[in-house]
Design brief:
By secondary structure, this protein is of the alpha+beta class. The protein is built from 4 helices and 3 strands. The radius of gyration is 18 Å and the shape is globular.
Length: 116
């Protein structure tokens, strides 16, 4: 069994949720999102994964973006924020996530399996 493959599947399934959570109360630019994700090795990701995800979420109307000049004279950065539709979607994801956690915890707590 390949544990790295399992972890990769978890990341793919939860990265979108993690990015939306980051943008719940804050605006971020792409590299900042990558930096925040890198704090959590299990969901750390690469530019080639995060930037297409951001573009898709924006195309779906869940994110809005705006360009802002950098104070340090660097090129402008594209900042992302949740739209109202994105907030509603995130609320649905929160409910689904909670149900998933409850199911996993219940399975972990079962002491024996019975056949029906």
């Amino acid at each position: 069994m390949n544990l790295d493959k399992w972890k990769s599947q978890i990341v793919r399934g939860t990265l979108e949720y993690g990015v939306l959570l980051m943008l719940k109360d804050d605006t971020c630019y792409g590299y900042e999102i990558l930096q925040r994700l890198s704090r959590y090795p299990i969901i750390s990701s690469t530019e080639s994964t995060v930037y297409p995800l951001l573009r898709r979420l924006q195309k779906e109307g869940l994110l809005a973006s705006s360009w802002k000049e950098s104070a340090e004279g660097l090129p402008p950065r594209k900042y992302y924020t949740l739209t109202d539709e994105g907030r509603a979607y995130l609320a649905q994801m929160d409910a689904g996530w909670q149900s998933l956690l409850e199911a996993i915890e219940a399975l972990k707590g079962e002491s024996s399996w019975t056949k029906s």
